[in-house]
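Second attempt. The first submission of MmcQ/YjbR family DNA-binding protein had a stray character pasted in from the spreadsheet, which I only caught after the job came back as garbage. Lesson logged: always re-copy from the clean sequence file. Corrected sequence (108 aa) follows.
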Amino acid sequence: MTATYHDDLEFLWKKFPGNAVWRRADTHKWYAALLKVPQSKLGLAGDEIITIIDLRLATADLAKLIDNDRYFPGYHMNKNHWYSIILDGRVTDAEIFDRLQTSYDLAH
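This time the job returned cleanly.
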């Protein structure tokens, strides 16, 4: 992110030191959140802690994307504009980077 967008992770919550956001420097809007949460927060069985990334997407495209396997409704975000990806390899890095670009563009 730093090399591409010149934005550093911002660790905003003392209670959750592993959670952070990326924010556009020009608009100060978030375009991604990196979070550690129990998998049950995404509707999955169990309480194993997983790492997710929340990204923006146009509302019209969200319903087509959410499959509750690779893409989930945005954890702790407005589910009309955000979705979550578990960072466990089920979505390729290349696809995540493409989706990051879309999220960045939407945070204008």
